[in-house]
Amino acid sequence: TVFTLNVVLAPADGPVGVLSDDRAAKAAQGLRLLSVEDNPFGRVVLNTILTELGHHAEFVGRGEAAPERLGQGTFDAVLMDMVLPGIGGVEAIKCIRALPPPHGRIAIVGISGRAEDEAAARAAGADGFLIKPVSPRALATALLEACRRAAAAT
Q: Which residues, 6 or more positions from 7, have their beta carbon under 8 angstroms from its beta carbon?
């Protein structure tokens, strides 16, 4: 049996909890995200979800490009695919965490189709983790929580 549930949600009228930092507060509005995703289909799916949530994403396809791109722009969070050509997501997260503040303390959410990647992502410094396929609600929640964690760490 397959059940399908479609829910249409309206934005909240007021604040949705106590937010400790501007980055966390922006999670309720619109974030500028760096998404490290090598799969073109994955990029389309993520971009569609992020656009619906009111966020703006820039994509890079290789883990080693992430730290360099962070240094060239202003981003609020990183979505890191864990399986990438070149260096993988774990190593890319470690490279980002080695950057000087504020770049090294940016919120990072690891994303993978394998649940077993979560422990390694978190050990490397990810603030959150999602398993593919990613739902809009799970992504919104993970971004909010990751931004709160990153804000509390600074």
A: none
